[in-house]
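Suppose a colleague, Dr. K., hands you the sequence of a protein chain of 163 amino acids and asks what its three-dimensional shape might be. Before reaching for any lab equipment, you can write down a predicted structure in token form. Begin with the sequence itself:
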Amino acid sequence: MPEPESVAPDERGQYLAGAFAFLFDGSDRFLLLQEQTDRRKYMFDLPGGTLQPFEDPIAGLRREVREETGIEISNVSPLCHLKYDVHDSGQPILVAFYVASAASSSVQLSAEHAGHRWVTREEYDANQYTVSLANEQTRRLLDTYSHSDTSSSGEGGRRGRRP
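The predicted structure, expressed as tokens, is then:
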């Protein structure tokens, strides 16, 4: 995948910020969202979106996931990966990726999405799904996450594969 064209920060010298999550349900599946055809930038994407000015990233991630899916999330933990991209507005954006637990696997899609699917890691690989994060990076993050013994965040640590 080609690198995004370099775009200067806005007139204040700032970038937009985004937060997206590998959102796992109780069956070790994570959620993929399909954008409406006229807005589609990727085959699928992870739940999340652009943060409001001065919004806490985890609070913004919770808001975005709730708006897009109707799902409440918990056990939010950063995956220590930032992606530089260009927002639909043309402004540069830095996107942080997280892992989180879904309170439910029942999805109520917003109007910006045409569909969704919960997939296991094996289904993700077998079907060659793509998201806004390059597949190599997605696999590396999922591998790192699934092999970590502990993870800590502002919500406390947890052990094992699922959040």
